[in-house]
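Run histidine kinase through structure prediction, thanks.
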Amino acid sequence: MMQLHLPRFFISALLYLASCFGAIWLINPQSLVNFVGPAAAVVSGLLIIWGLTPIVAILLVTPILAFSLKYFFYFDANLAVMSIAVLAIVLQAFWTKQLVFRFIHYKKWLLSRKHLFFFLLRIGPIASIVSASSVLVIAMLDNQVIQGTFFYTFINTWSASMLVAVFFIPLLLLAKNAEQLKLTKRIFVGFTSVLGALAILILFKTSQYEQQSYRQALFKQSKVAIERLIEAEVAGVVNQINSLSAFFKASDYVSLTEFTVFSESIFKQGSSIRALEWAPIVPFSHRQWFEQQSSVTLQQDFHIRERLANGKVVLAKPRSQYAPLYYIYPQYGNQAAFGLDVYSTPQQVLSMQQVVDSKQVIASAPMSLVQDDMAKPGMLFSKAVFLPPEDNYATKPSGQNKLSIIKADKLIGFVVAVVQFDRFFQQLAKQQDQDVSFFIQDVSSHQPFTLFGQALPSANRYMETINMEVFSRLWQINIAEKQPWFSQVKTWQAWAVLIGGTLGALLFQMLVLMMAAYSSELGQQVDIKTRALILAKESSEQKSLAKSNFLQNLNKELRLPLLAMKVFVEQLKKKGINNKQVTGISHAGSNIALLLDTMMDLSDIESGKIIAKEDCFDFHGFLQRTEAVFKASNTYEGKPISFLIDDSVPHYINSDELYIQKLLQALIESAHKLLGADALRLSIKLHKHKRADASLFFIISSQNEAVSKANEQDLTQQNYDELSVNSTAMAMAIKYSHLLRGDTKLATLSSGAGVLSASIRVIISSIEQQEAQQGLTFDIID
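Sure, done. The structure for histidine kinase is below.
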């Protein structure tokens, strides 16, 4: 018993693993739910033919499957998911076995087309509902979502499980051959089913490839659009900063009003800039004068301040130069920033020396900025403003509340823009509402800073990462589909291929198996008919044997009194008594003896005891002797008959001379009664078939056509049938023609005269047979 179960265990384990990995590899996109339906169908078939051994096998190899799925396919095959999958597979297997138990136990699933239809209906569409329902829970756990529709998941799993079941389970049963089908039939059905399965697989793979190509193209399009729009927004901010820098570079002096007007025009363009700031370079010697003039210009108490390492803002300590924030637009909400020395900005946020050295726009590290009572991520975009080499001047106080220019370093100040991309990112996310989601982080440091969104789920979604350099900062943009593949809206082509292909494959397999079932039905009907024929033959043989026994017994019983009568008549004749009565008794006994011989011939012909010979004899000589006998017979006195032999009739034939003679006697006797004429004409003709095989025709007609026309009303098929039943001669003619492989017929010529014909099958004697027969004849004469 162990030797029997061990191979089944390993075969079941291998088929289970092959179905799981094959389904995940073949079904696109690859997902954890793909293997449940096909594996359930395979295990159902194994359970039907092998019992509980396959269940033990899948329970033991499932941990190997879970580890392989994590290692090779990177699926989260956790305990909950695999437990639900295995329970669904086992439940479908047991339910399938219960549904088709009677079909398998009584070996009638392929017995008829009706049984086959209900068998396929139970192993396919009905049983597959179990795995299709279970994957809904698995899909929610795998995709980590609850909302949305998983109807496509249900239909896809139902289809896969049903197709594997209707193709795999019948092949297993045919391989086991419990129905005792012929090997050729099993090979034909198996080969056709495999070809059909391959065709359906290619159709589904082609459809999946087209769907995924279209899906990937849409995702790539959304990704490129997002990348392009973000780059355009950043470039727009930089362009505005450059324009403000050029404005300060081109003017000897820029007033607060001019700065406000220029900044207002920039803000109307709807960029992500929250505030624009100007920080001029102020030497230490001009600090006090600059603070006084700024207080008057800005109409508020203005002091140059700096930010300590702990984030506290205090008055700036003495140093060679400062870059305080002097102009800010808009002022509302940003008053606290006036006078803040940008040189005091923490190095990890923004290095002003780096801004000076690069001479380009430099972005700071992201920071949390309070806006509308909410902290949102923001950045500082800074650019150092330099005078041209021929105009290297610095700022010093002069009269009329203005700053005069003296020759100094090239740096005259910093243009700073406070930028928040949150509103732009929200608008961009709304534009991609039906397609993708994105998550943006600043990854310039070891600890990433989130600029927008949150970590995206990646299960059953396309996902890509874009690394974008933003003026000394590195942004990482993760883009992923909003919905997993199974929850996405499918095109009508995808639904058409899935549903149409499934129903088409089911119909194809049903037709293939129905041919085998129809063959079984025909075989069953043939067996029934054969048994009926055998019984009928046995019954007929019994009746024929009983009839023969009765006739034989009757013949024996009647022969004895006939012999006694014959002896008695002979004794009377010896005594000289030979009157009319004695002659009548003698004739009556002879007629009864002839009738008994005829009855025995009929009985022997019906029982098959008499078989016609195929001896070679001179047919023309036979006809001449027969004609002479008929003409000399007292029975046919006054009833002339003439024989007309066609030229096609050969001299020698192979047949039974005795029964041809009896046939002619019975035909001529019947023709007198049927045609109602005394003078008859017998025409003999021949029709060749192939080689030496031929048919002889004996056609009897009346020599007097007037008499024949007068009796025309009697020449009906009914009269012929009545004569065949009531006339012993006609019955004998029919039996003899059948014995000689021919038939008798009644016909009417175009002239209205009736004819009675009989046909027999003969063989034309070969030259060697004729010579041999002639030699025997001459020997007898000698």
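The first strand starts at residue 273 and ends at 280.
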